[in-house]
């Protein structure tokens, strides 16, 4: 039960971080995309530091969750940060939550509960992954980040496509960060904290985290939060769960359980779609 509680807390704190950092970035000029001046400007914003503190807290909670259970348990629950974002954005941006949005929140929550119940994720080992597998996986993930970042940079300034595409690059980066965090926490459990700092995952985590963090700031500075959050919410768990099952060998139930999980996934998708459309409609007013 601890892993579920920690993952839900991570989603809530991560949503607060997204809203605070978007509030700090919302007045930044769009021509600063990928420019170092973007970071210099946001360092002058007190809200940005509050968002950074929330992000650090969410990372600590996520690391604790990953140390307590497999990625395929933790990551689906992190999708709850979209409903949490809806609620918190109401406070910061004065946005009224409609009845259909609350129904979407209920759909996402029920879908996630059914998905985890049906698939019953277990197992996995991040300690015995061959070096060649790491190289292939990290290389493929880096290529995905580059493609989405390039497409986002080419999208028209002021369009919702720009933050949406950039959010896919940032989300992929954070998915890789989650994977490396799992590897790092596994090293801590197996060899202690001092021993973990003698292995490469912690340094890979620092690099991947820095890149993902920069892409997040670029995303928030390129357009409204409502256009970026669905991509951030959906991409990270998908990337991390693929790694969890394919690379770490985490197990989920197959057969009829997998078939019955399809409606649960559809329910989640419908909920996310409703919120995404609602957010996009509000984007023109942000």
Overview of the molecule:
There is one protein chain. The chain is mostly helical. It has one domain. Helix content is 80%, strand content 0%. It has helices at residues 2-25, 36-42, 46-68, 71-78, 81-93, 99-119, 131-154, 161-196, 201-222, 225-247, 256-283. The longest helix has 36 residues, at 161-196.
What would a concise description of this structure say?
By secondary structure, this protein is mostly helical. The protein contains eleven helices and no strands. The chain has helices at 2-25, 36-42, 46-68, 71-78, 81-93, 99-119, 131-154, 161-196, 201-222, 225-247, 256-283.
List keywords for this structure.
single chain, 0% strand, 80% helix, mainly alpha, 11 helices, 286 residues, globular
**DSSP, total strands:** 0
Global geometry: globular
What is the average of the pLDDT values?
83
Unreliable residue runs:
none
Number of helices: 11
Strand proportion, as a percent range, falls in under 5%
Give the helix/strand class. mainly alpha
Helicity range of the residues? Answer: over 70%
**Largest sheet report:** none
Could you give the order of the helices and strands? Answer: HHHHHHHHHHH
Q: How many domains, as an integer?
A: 1
Layout of SSEs?
Elements: H1 2-25, H2 36-42, H3 46-68, H4 71-78, H5 81-93, H6 99-119, H7 131-154, H8 161-196, H9 201-222, H10 225-247, H11 256-283
Helix pairs in contact: 1-3, 1-4, 1-5, 3-8, 4-10, 6-11, 7-8, 8-9, 8-10, 10-11
